[in-house]
Amino acid sequence: MVFANIEYLFLLLLLIPYIVWYIMKRKNSEATLQISDARVYAHTPKSYKNYLLHAPFALRIIALALIIIVLSRPQTTDSWQNSEIEGIDIMLAIDVSTSMLAEDLKPNRLEAAKDVAAEFINGRPNDNVGITLFAGESFTQCPLTVDHAVLLNLIKDVKCGLIEDGTAVGMGIANAVTRLKDSKAKSKVIILLTDGTNNRGEISPLTAAEIAKSFGIRVYTIGVGTNGMAPYPYPVGGTVQYVNMPVEIDEKTLTQIAGTTDGNYFRATSNSKLKEVYEEIDKLEKTKLNVKEYSKRQEEYRWFALAAFLCVLLEVLLRNSILKKIP
């Protein structure tokens, strides 16, 4: 049940001081008599009128409350919604090689990628999203799902060292393709993020791109890392020392992968640039949501009005019959 004029319900608060006034008035108007011993009246039977003494006031309060509800126009709704979604299935292929620990992005490349990916997922509530991780080999961290709460929890667990080190870009694409190839979605997309050059795996990146193209899958590639040198942490004993390492991203191959599949290549040299890349991809791959909605509302004040009338009628009858001589 909903209320068309819900603000009228605040008038119910005015009944509180009215009830307090009634209690104080009855207390001050009661007659008193001082006697030496009241035990003689202890077993005096009470008349039924004593129990009905406050009934008129209670009925008036109920009637006023019901009238306020009538003013607020209670309604029942009968509605249904049929959403037709041209869904997009998205696999995030994320590089988890140890080079992703470089701190040219803060706190490092991997954590920055996880944060921006989480924001991206939150902005795609109607899409199936999954995660593929790759380093020297590749595996699926989470298959396609609309349960984004589970997906976001799994993203938190992504870290370097889960699999053998290296950069198998082709395997990362191929693994994501296996999750998307049988999809019936209107659009199928892979967002691949890496900071290096393919140096492992049985499938070359360009071959994997051709496979993706054959299944109608579009690949957006992101090269993450600053230009020139980047600080990389090396644990030494109980401390961490930083060594500047050259940033080597195979932009040519990543551009070819994107071009083969009608996607785009992006370069993210900072946290803000990485966020802008995901925002751009989000604009390019918008879900179309067509909603058909039917809604019918029916006024339900009549029963409340009838109950209020009966309360008023009963109060008048009590005051002019049984309780007529009682103040």
Automatic annotation (TrEMBL):
Q: Which UniProt keywords apply?
A: Cell membrane, Coiled coil, Membrane, Transmembrane, Transmembrane helix
List the SUPFAM superfamilies hit by this protein, alphabetically: vWA-like
Cite a single Pfam family from the UniProt record. VWA
| Domain of life where this protein originates | Bacteria
By its UniProt entry, which InterPro entries does this protein fall under?
Aerotolerance_reg_N, UPF0353/GerABKA_families, vWA_BatA_type, VWF_A, vWFA_dom_sf
SMART domains listed in its UniProt record: VWA
**What transmembrane ranges does the database entry give?**
6-24, 51-71, 301-318
The record's PANTHER family line, in alphabetical order, gives:
LEUCINE ZIPPER PROTEIN 4, SPORE GERMINATION PROTEIN
| Protein name as annotated | von Willebrand factor type A domain protein
